[in-house]
Amino acid sequence: MAKQGYVFHNNPALLFLLLLLFEAANGGKATRLNHWESGIIRLPSEKDDQQLGTRWAVLVAGSSGYGNYRHQADVCHAYQLLRKGGLKEENIIVFMYDDIAMNELNPRPGIIINHPQGDDVYAGVPKDYTGEHVTAANLYAVLLGNRSALSGGSGKVVDSKPDDRIFLYYSDHGGPGVLGMPNLPFLYAMDFLDVLKKKHAAGSYREMVIYVEACESGSIFEGIMPEDLNIYVTTASNAQESSWGTYCPGMEPSPPPEFITCLGDLYSVAWMEDSETHNLKRETIEQQYKTVRERTSNFNSYTSGGSHVMEYGSRSIKAEKLYLYQGFDPASVNFPPDEFSHDVQMEAVNQRDADILFLWHMYKNSEDGSKKKEILKQISETMRHRTHLDGSIDLIGTVLYGPAKGSVILNTIREPSLPLVDDWQCLKSMRLIEESMCPRPFTTIKSESFSKLV
Predict the structure, then answer these.
(1) 43-63 pLDDT tens trace
(2) Under a CB-based contact definition with an 8 Å cutoff, are residues 140 and 134 in contact?
(3) Which end of the chain, N or C, is more open, meaning fewer C-beta atoms within 10 Å of its C-beta?
């Protein structure tokens, strides 16, 4: 018997002939048996999960506040998807402020949804790093497996070994060279890249895949992400544009009428809904990238709600199957590997305008006259503040470069292959000053111009 197994294992043609005979014996009718995932017959190149290293995942929602509901909904959804795929809770580390589920504005207390008809994605999500412990420093310590550098939280870290794979997913606001965190300081591109380089130098993983949902998220990697770290990255947007919220009130598809905020983000729901409707032992990372790129562009309607999904790093990883990072749900065994099943345009809102949309619907739904007046004042002050900040940046540009060149320089776009700036430390120093004076500045300021001042 062992000899026969050896013959089939080393003779794919004979194995294929056996499959044809098996099909003929069933009258040529299609069977429910999926030969490749059944466990009965495997290609010689396939491996059992036991032969793979451990799958690790780090999920980060970088915002707080009910108006940013969608970011924590994205992360909770990702957790449920990975758990269905077989990743162990001990190997999934979650960062989220955790102020949404029980928020007084949540019409479904204790429940978070990421789709208009979606199930609760909050139940069972571990509270690894919440509230004041959702920090860039803790994220770096978790990725490096450095428990001694942690401040609060569950103490879980990525204690990975050389054969392990890591999946990192981040969702929040962003700006040129920076990703948001609910507690200062923010995540800066070069700091993050230094962490990735240290992780690689330690030899403590085999490969890593990173998905980033944020405005200008391409600027974190553009022109600076090495191709030899065994890390593959996709971002929701290029270095110059916004990413988009979706499933928003007043749009199609619309959330249930009691919701006054967006339920998800376009790039994020694109990759998760793709994973949920495909066999991840057959779908490659590249196939998902192309599907998500198409859907996030809103089928090339960028101006009406869509962005350019970008890729960076070790592109050879794209040929691998998704299950190596996201796991495999046995219920998906008969799903197609790459058939595109979400081909309807979705209305979306610019991430920065999603905050205003939330306030507007809160104003419309309020029946308290004094409260409506207070909300309207908040909307007016927010818009006035944004105009003031944009004007201040334009004025600085004029002072530095003169009336004739100021506007031109601030609106000049670098070549796609070039990094955002040449002096990253200067950019970080300016950002730190900005942070101290203006909370979450990239949600209110003309951030794409800010980096031009460096």
Answers:
(1) 444 555 545 899 999 999 999
(2) no
(3) N
